[in-house]
Amino acid sequence: MKEERLCITARAVVTMDDAYHLYEPGYVIVCGDVIKAVGSNKPASTEYDTLMEMPDHLLMPGLINAHTHTPMVLTRGMCEGVSLFTMDGFLNTLRRYEAKADADMASLTTGVSCAEMIRTGTTCFVDQYFYADRIYDVVDRAGLRAVIAYGIVELGSEEARKRELGFATQFLEQCKGHKLIKAWIGPHAFFVDNSEELIAEEIRLAKQYDAGFHIHFATSNEENDYCSEHYGCTAIEKMKELGILEIPILAAHSITISDEDIKKMADYPFYPVMAPSAAMRSGFAAAPVKEMRAAGVHVLLGTDNVCNSNSYDLFREMATAGKLIIHTSHDVNAIEPKEIVRMATLEAANAIGLGDKTGSLEVGKQADLIALDLKDIGWGPFAGQDWYTQLVYSVSGHSVTHSMVGGAWLMKDSELLTLDYAKEVDRLEQANKELLRRLAADN
Known about the structure:
By secondary structure, the protein is an alpha/beta fold. Helix content is 38%, strand content 23%.
């Protein structure tokens, strides 16, 4: 049976390809799950079967959230006054909550995170957390594209090491062959809570399953302090020695990195992920993004958890990132708006090994796209500014009205099609009340 060719026309098509092609007006033709054509104006009627005209919209690739922990929406707003980037905040707040949570709560809460990402323009995300199999089930139902890293915290326990490696292996097997979901390995933090013995096994698994690492790195100086004391070198130098840097790595935060280590990172598939709202709300410095980019390091963008960054709106995160990079660099030209959009689209896709499938609107790629309503507040005047500035600094993800992943609509006219947000919120409330009950029972 011949697949339908859907032609979507719009006032503007922002492709985010390497040449930053932009069509005003423009169109995208989708056949099945693949983009068949992208161009200016409107194609001949013989090139498509169905026409969807969106003259007051902008089409662009869906955004990619390169670092989050979806089940942690369970404790959104419950970490006020705590710096989650410190070991004290991590152990005495997050770990205290997590000790009372369970796999069922991950199932109950992840739907809200997925729904909010779809609603605000994210079509692909990279997760790192426990209960990866439960996250997988919800993401599969939501229809999002995702790279899910099985989160591993060992803290020197041989029993925990064997258990977590076993679960990680099972999850890597579970995801084999899935069209939209890839499995990675998620050491929470090398050296800090993942021992050298565990690291060797994680490298073996990554090579066996062609997976990457999704880690937290250089949030403060714990890794460097540990490696300096035990090995007499920096964490990056030790990671190079152990072979860790040969594996693709998403390194969340990457704040306390020296210029010398930045130069070393540039030689490897090492991708720092800036989470500006989380860093600012934890009272920490900004990652040295300008210096990293100048060295040829590709920096990505993520929301982190929403315990105290609170929002999955990656458009808001793009605005925060741009302002923070410029502010800390004391340089109004430290980064261009189009480069910020690229961090959340094509560069992220390349980093997770999906650059041939998503991240830009190009012929042959998967049809992962979003449409934004140009009648929404914040856009005008249209003649006096460029689309990238508007996307980064003028509007939010609430301008997104349509979302498609692999040719399937996840949202049309601002209505979620794969998830019932009200029901997902009810599930979240159920899980949160049970967590609070368990915490109260300990007091």
